[in-house]
Design a protein that fits this description.
Elements (H helix, E strand, L loop, with lengths): L1 H15 L42 H11 L19 H9 L2 H7 L6 H10 L4 H27 L2 H30 L7 H14 L1
Helix pairs in contact: 2-6, 3-6
Length: 207
């Protein structure tokens, strides 16, 4: 969809001049944040597969998804076994969500994620510790979102007011864009009387 929009804008601007803004994708710099896999390691979360963690999930559900379904390293059978962080969904989520502040708060044995990964790779760090840390990180991330959702659920009238104001702003912006398009294409007849005058002169010349 984005590629198609860019093609349309580029062609329009090429024909009618610099009128429309070329859309660009808003992509997080952190590659892991662009699309988190499902907790079972599938390419993406799916409601039908039940491999999602929703922003509205309560702590009990989040804990159940992480402890019960989240894929780790199948070769890491014992704590002493060397483990792999690549393809390990726990570490994929930590790559996307955790920072040094989380370690200071919940896992002070490590200064950062790289130290934790190194320990896991050489053996001696269990999946349970990793999952517990991730649950804490997820809860810190989701708690304010959950609270905000509950606040707005209790004030639906304000939600509708915000949606109405947003719609009015969108209509205003759309009309401004359409006005620029009509002007560039010289079909803004009612706003620019000179266009009709030019057409009348052309008609006179053809008689």
């Amino acid at each position: 969809m984005l590629e198609q929009a860019r093609e349309i804008v580029e062609k329009f601007n090429r024909i009618y001049g610099d009128t429309l803004v070329l859309p660009t994708a808003m992509i997080p710099e952190n590659e892991m944040q662009r699309r988190l896999p499902g907790v079972d390691g599938k390419a993406k979360m799916s409601k039908s597969l039940g491999n999602c963690i929703y922003l509205s999930d309560d702590p009990k559900t989040v804990k159940k998804q992480v402890n019960g379904r989240m894929l780790t390293d199948p070769t890491h059978l014992k704590i002493t076994d060397p483990g792999h962080t690549e393809g390990n969904v726990v570490f994929t989520y930590l790559d996307a969500l955790c920072d040094e502040g989380h370690f200071a708060e919940y896992l002070p044995e490590y200064a950062n994620l790289e130290e934790m990964k190194d320990h896991y790779r050489r053996g001696g760090l269990g999946d349970g510790v990793c999952k517990k840390f991730l649950i804490n990180v997820l809860e810190e991330t989701l708690s304010p979102i959950r609270a905000e959702r509950e606040k707005w659920e209790a004030d639906i009238d304000s939600v509708y007011d915000i949606l109405r104001q947003g719609t009015e702003k969108a209509v205003e912006t759309t009309n401004e864009t359409l006005a620029r398009v009509r002007k560039a294409m010289k079909i803004d007849y009612f706003e620019n009387r000179s266009i009709i005058n030019e057409w009348n002169e052309l008609l006179k010349q053809t008689k």
